[in-house]
Amino acid sequence: MVRPGKNSGEPSVGVQKPLWDSDFSLAPAYEHLYDSGMVLDELRSAVDQVCGTEPAALCDGESIVELHRCLARLEAATTRATASFDARREWADDGARSAPAWLTARCQLPRQTARRRVRLGRALRHLPAAERAWLAGEVGEAQVAALARVRTPATEDAMANDEEMLVGQASSLRYDHFTRVLAYWRQYVDPDGAEDDAERQRGSRRVHLSQGLDDRWFLDGVLDPISGAIISDALRAIADELFEADWAEARERLGEAATVADLARTPAQRRHDALVEMARRAGTAPEDGRRPEPLFSVLVGYETFHGPICQLANGTAVSPGSLVPWLDQAWVERVVFDAPSRVIDVGVARRLFTGATRRAVQVRDRECFHPLCDEPAEWCEVDHVEPWSAGGDTVAANGRPACAFHNRQRHRRP
Ligand SMILES: [Zn+2]
To answer: Ligand 1 centroid vs 403 CA: distance in angstroms?
Structure first.
């Protein structure tokens, strides 16, 4: 919601700049030359045109990207203006207690959103490169907020030096890859802070299971990144078994016509049943049975090519110290890149990627090969880049992880 400019309705004087010029910026000294009412009128009519356009006319990939880019630019301008509104205390004129309180009431924002916008606007003053990139639509709010989160008193000097580089990563990488880069950067410039955070995360772990008035049970909790990955992997493996069972049952009932809508349970119900199944299996497992220990892969030589890494199979970057509590019960696997002690490229004619070769590909690539997919390699099959039928070898160099979906998609094509 926007208040009309002070001079709206009057002939406007001043410099006109195209609204969507990518170099658009208002130097404070020239700010008074712009008539806010005129700028917003132009914006409104441009937005009117977009809103009046049939969705079908904007549904090609290029338009979708451009719409998101414009949305990001507008969010950047809105956040920057909000920061200025906050600093000049214009909200106090209306008797509000704070800028977020004013925004919550006048713009009908959830309180959290209002606070976040004001906070991010304040942070922008210390992140000039991020502000420029956001105004240009090269990055979005999520990337700028992630940068602001890692700028602490301990990292602010390093951020001043590295901001351009990090913003460059933000504009070229997928969001989750960028946040991983940020996590590693944080570990590098502030190792103690990163370890303290990890310890705080581990310290805040909790699970509550309580019975409600109607006898149902309520489960609520917070898990540290490693524990969460252990539980999530186990739950997912059992939920997958239950899905197969549901699917087989639906096929038997309806034949070829069965779809996911015909499955007896929803995904949430299957996760519930998987948790119960996990408890039942825990009760029936032999006391001296081998526990599935967490597996640690130590990548030797990898950092020479790609830089040091410390992350879970699901891609979450973790601090080295957070692994220590797990080390005495973990299986440690050594994967050597381009070194003779572990043979990762075996030229033997094999049809399928198995054992060390398969593992080498999973550890190296970590995700499904498809650029629009982030399925962890652990859940992927390893298939041939150059197909086996076309003479492709079953060696790590010719292997890549492919999730079930992208594996199927590939084989549907000629
Ligand atoms: Zn995939």
So the answer is: 4
Residue range 345-357: mean pLDDT, rounded: 58
More confident residue, 74 or 20: 74
- Ligand 1 mean position to 9 CA, how many Å? 55
Which residue has tokens 């299957």? 270
Q: Which amino acid is at 175?
A: Y
Provide the CB-side half-sphere exposure for 172 (13 A, CA). 7
Taking the centre of ligand 1 as the mean of its atom positions, its distance from the CA of residue 411, in whole angstroms, is 13
Q: Which band of pLDDT confidence, cut at 50, 70 and 90, is reported for residue 9?
A: very low
Residue 397 has a pLDDT of 85
pLDDT tens digits, 112-127:
999 999 999 999 999 9
Residue 51 Cα to ligand 1 midpoint, Å, equals 34
Q: For the chain, what percent of residues have pLDDT higher than 70? A: 79
Distance between Cα 400 and ligand 1 center (Å): 11
- Write out pLDDT tens, residues 374-400: 899 888 888 888 877 777 887 888 889
d(CA 183, CA 50): 38
Give exposure, 343-378, as e/b (b: 16+ Cβ within 10 Å): ebeeeeeeeebeebbbbbbbbbbbbbbbeeebbbbb
CA of 180 to the centre of ligand 1 (A): 19
In the reported structure, the alpha carbon of residue 375 is separated from the centroid of ligand 1 by a whole-number distance in angstroms of: 6
Concatenating the DSSP letter of every residue in 244-308 gives HHHHHHHHHHHGGG--GGG-SS-HHHHHHHHHHHHHHHHHHS-TTSPP-PPEEEEEESHHHHH--
Using a CB cutoff of 5 Å, list residues around ligand 1, an ion. Answer: 368, 370, 373, 375, 403, 406
How many Å lie between the centroid of ligand 1 and the Cα of residue 307?
A: 25
Phi first, then psi: give them for residue 158, nearest 5 degrees.
-60, -40
265: left (phi over 0), alpha (psi -120 to 50) or beta: beta
What is the model's pLDDT at position 385? 87
The larger pLDDT score, comparing residue 385 to residue 151, is at 151
Question: Cα of 399 to ligand 1 centre, how many Å?
Answer: 14
pLDDT of residue 281: 87
Alpha-carbon gap, residue 317 to 299, rounded angstroms: 15
From ligand 1's centre to the CA of 354, what distance in Å?
A: 19
